[in-house]
Amino acid sequence: NASGAKPTSAESVTELAGREFGRQVKERIAGSEVQHGDAIVFLHGYNVPFEDAAIRAAQIGADLNIPGATAFFSWPSQGRMYGYTADEIRLFVREAAKVGMKVEGHVQTVAGAKNAIDAGIWSIAHSTGLNEEMHTLMAQKGIFRAGTDTPPGLDGHPVSAQAYQRTVASLKDAYAKKVPLTFSTDADYYVAGKTRGEVCIEFLKTWKDAGIPNVDIIRAMTIGGYTVSQTETTRGPIKAGFVADLSAVPSEPLDALDALQTAQSVQQDDPAFTQAALLAPAEPLPRGPPDGGRLR
Q1: Phi/psi at 243 (nearest 5 deg)?
Q2: Cys staple from 224: which of 75, 202, 220, 270, with CB 3.0 to 4.6 Å?
Q3: What is the pTM of this model?
């Protein structure tokens, strides 16, 4: 500041009605030395709340002694990575549709779920932001629920009795409202002594405790999964020309789901694996975070 004057500090935002805002902008421009074609526009980061963006833009305008008014372009994200509006999600959905793809959203809040549902998203992962109202809307639009319905008893991933009751009640409500369901575990959990398959199968407890019939649980694990992933035209049904994806179990799982825990053999595509090979395979993929952490 060569003049020695005290620098201007932008500290707060004042909300104005539309007409008053326009009047003040015109007044600022009319009383300045702005030339035709002159403009300064500030584009802030995607995870900056509106007020912070406004203050930063005003501070830049003051520091640079910009004549007229300083404008800024605001991403409406509430300063959170997941705070996108329905319009933004709708844009993602439209762009994905151009190449024949669907959009799944990892949703953590009720507000986020409402935005995603309003935008016509294909599926919602996790169940934290899903309540009875959201389930009703999802059923109306045919939006899949791919919940993270974690059961108690997994070492390193404690679930309180109250939290588990909420999880069971949420899944039960979704089923009652006929929300499209897929068996989703989000099993990036590392549990000492268990393979990922063994961890995933533990999630059956939540579905059984929610009172969902065995046939519908199996349907969610098979047809539901193929449909939500858009692979139902190449695999899933036992049909000529489809990819083989079969498991042999010792008894009827429609009578007792525990039969799924003791698969005798599995055939995927061309290879077939016996139980012995499943229990002692070479491990080409990591089993999960070595310390049990969940990194995002």
Answers
A1: -65, 135
A2: 220
A3: 0.65
